Amino acid sequence: MSVPYEASAEDGLDKLGLHVCKDRLDSVAQRAAAEGWSYTHFLGYLLDGELRARHEKRVELNLQFAKFPALKDLEGFDFSAQPSLDKRLMDELVTGRYLSEGRNVILLGPPGVGKTHLAIALGVQVAQAGNRVYFTTAMDLAHQLTKAVDQNRLHRKLNALMQPRLLILDELGYLAFDPVQASLLFQVICNRYQKGQSIAITSNKAFSEWGQVFADDTVMASAALDRLLHRATVFNIRGESYRLKDRRKAGAHTNGHGESSPLEQNDHPI
User: Fold this and answer.
1) Which of 16, 214, 231, 268 is packed most tightly, with the most Cβ within 10 A?
2) Rounded to whole angstroms, how far apart are CA atoms 239 and 79?
3) For residues 269 and 194, which has the higher predicted lDDT (pLDDT)?
4) Domain boundaries in the chain?
């Protein structure tokens, strides 16, 4: 009586969409018979391959959806060059617990200290855990929102921005918003706050300067900060720009005779 079931096993797996199980069925069954596996061990081992393949596919799709400008990880970040950064706190964020708590991550500091690298690294971790993440600059998002208004699809766009488990807004403050853009970004912050959805923000502006970013509307800036900081982990990175260091090294190498380059003679960062 077992022959019909054996003959239909591959077809059944195919109909259930378990294509990896189907492809591995014969080899796993032979190994199970040779090593005397229990039925549950055989089934668990067969399904493990399917689950791994599906997770890898999900991660691949998540990384495509995220629109990262580059893939970064924490292993590639030089924490020794930024002593003001608490690595233990960053390691805690890698666990992803902040997402369940609806906490935000805010990375403040001058240009070139690695804020975007860290934000992307956290986003990659979220994607690898099987969750959706979306990366955009704050100004690009403002443009997307104003375009959605013009096309009468703002509600759809705002709903779409609720889907990622983590929304990363890069370079907030590099360019100021006009009143409409500031209002639209505020709506995004409010919506995600109400739903307990995390936001990661990088900014070169101190909180006291966010009024300028929000079209000189200090009331709106205060309301946005109130929501963002209610549950948040804030990093204030005060190190030197990596790009400045690279330019100093390049300048010293170019001089070649032990002479200091112009950059080395100037202690003020660009």
Assistant:
1) 214
2) 10
3) 194
4) 2-64, 67-239, 241-270
Asked whether 227 and 190 are in contact (CB, 8 A), the reply is: yes
In whole angstroms, what is the distance from residue 61 CA to residue 40 CA? 31
Share of the chain above pLDDT 70, in %: 88
User: How open is the CA angle 176-180-186, to the nearest 5 degrees?
Assistant: 80
Q: Do the strands 104-108 and 232-236 form a parallel or antiparallel pair, or are they unpaired? A: parallel
Helix (H) or strand (E) holding 182: helix 179-194
CA distance 92 to 89: 5
pLDDT tens for 193-210 read 999 999 999 999 999 999
Instruction: Indicate the class that CATH gives domain 67-239.
Output: alpha beta
- Each residue's pLDDT tens digit, 44-72: 999 999 999 999 999 999 999 999 999 99
Inform me whether the pLDDT recorded for 243 exceeds 90.
no
| Other residues' Cβ atoms within 10 Å of the Cβ of residue 116 | 21
